[in-house]
């Protein structure tokens, strides 16, 4: 991979330098894929043999592939993972299990909300990378397509029919945005 240069725009005071930006991208994406894996593990622990189980297993398998890719990139690029991994370990599983306890539609609402935030997050990263990190950008574009597929699948599986959908969706989106912000920095 070429060195990261962040060629999209001039940096402003307070903006991370190119190395810091690369570290944030890799750290937060690793953390996010780990959190997604744990959400699906929580859902599967509760839903076990529900009709949505094969769908959730498929999405979980893709998240594991994403996590494996970022797990390889961190040491290659000499980036440490977030220090918040223990929190995402517990919190991701709890979010998955809690939404699954509300039913399959709520589990799908969780997936939809998380993936909607991740779609926007990955889009911003792709724009920030520009042409300076073509391999990383391509990897994120592929993973973004998978996340969009997960969001669309969740919608098709009735996410909007979940109990208290609007409240659930807003809450999960806020938690996801907060986790992104923290994981980039800690």
Summarize the structure.
By secondary structure, the protein is mainly α. The protein has helices spanning 18-47, 53-76, 85-101, 104-129, 134-156, 165-185.
Textual characterization of the structure:
The structure is a single chain. This protein has 186 residues and is mainly alpha-helical. It has a single domain (18-185), classed as Heme Oxygenase, Chain A, CATH 1.20.910. It has 6 helices and no strands. The chain has helices at residues 18-47, 53-76, 85-101, 104-129, 134-156, 165-185. Helix 2 packs antiparallel against helix 5 (134-156). Mean pLDDT is 90; it is low at 1-8.
Gyration radius over CA = 16 Å
Terminal CA distance reads 25 Å
Helix percent reads over 70%
- Mean of residue pLDDT values: 90
- Give the helix tally: 6
Order of helices and strands: HHHHHH
Keywords:
disordered N terminus, 186 residues, Heme Oxygenase, Chain A, 76% helix, mainly alpha
Write the topology of this structure.
Blueprint lengths: L17 H30 L5 H24 L8 H17 L2 H26 L4 H23 L8 H21 L1
């Amino acid at each position: 991979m070429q060195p990261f240069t962040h060629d999209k725009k001039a940096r402003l005071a307070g903006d991370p330098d190119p190395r810091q930006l690369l570290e944030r991208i890799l750290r937060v994406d690793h953390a996010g894929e780990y959190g997604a894996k744990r959400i699906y593990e929580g859902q599967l622990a509760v839903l076990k043999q529900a009709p949505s189980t094969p769908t959730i297993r498929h999405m979980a398998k893709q998240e594991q592939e994403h996590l494996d890719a970022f797990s390889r990139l961190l040491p290659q690029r000499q980036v440490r993972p977030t220090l918040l991994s223990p929190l995402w370990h517990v919190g991701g599983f709890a979010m998955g299990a809690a939404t699954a306890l509300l039913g399959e539609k709520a589990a799908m609402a969780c997936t939809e909300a998380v993936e909607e935030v991740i779609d926007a997050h990955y889009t911003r990263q792709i724009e920030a990378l520009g042409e300076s990190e073509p391999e990383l950008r391509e990897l994120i574009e592929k993973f973004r397509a998978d996340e969009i597929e997960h969001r669309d699948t969740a919608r098709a599986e009735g996410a909007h029919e979940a109990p208290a959908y609007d409240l659930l969706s807003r809450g999960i989106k806020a938690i996801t945005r907060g986790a992104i912000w923290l994981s980039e920095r800690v």
